[in-house]
Design a protein that fits this description.
Length: 126
Amino acid sequence: MEKYLLCHMSCKERISLTKLRLSNHPLMIESGRHLKLDILQRYCPFCPNIIETEQHFLLYCEIYSTIREILLREILLYFPLFNLLCEREKFIALMTDEGFMPLTAHFTHKAFEIRSFLINQPKNHE
């Protein structure tokens, strides 16, 4: 059993993190595969011409910048050298480090909620 499953987090947060880790999520990198879209056409619904990968979702998408700041502030308390890691190392640490898992799970759950709300309740441009 993966150690993160024993970390203190809500059931909803654990489910969100597990879905992200298993590629059982709504991000375009995965849902586009089911729609038979070319990988280069699986764009983020919020970032023009950027593929919506797990890494983009977790580290870069501007829509989640406010909650990402909270995540990164907490991580820097735990691991002050986090910002010195390359982007691949950051992603791996967020997805595998036991100390980060509850923080990553919280971010993931909130970000999936935001994504769902924005996609299902688009702004009225009248």
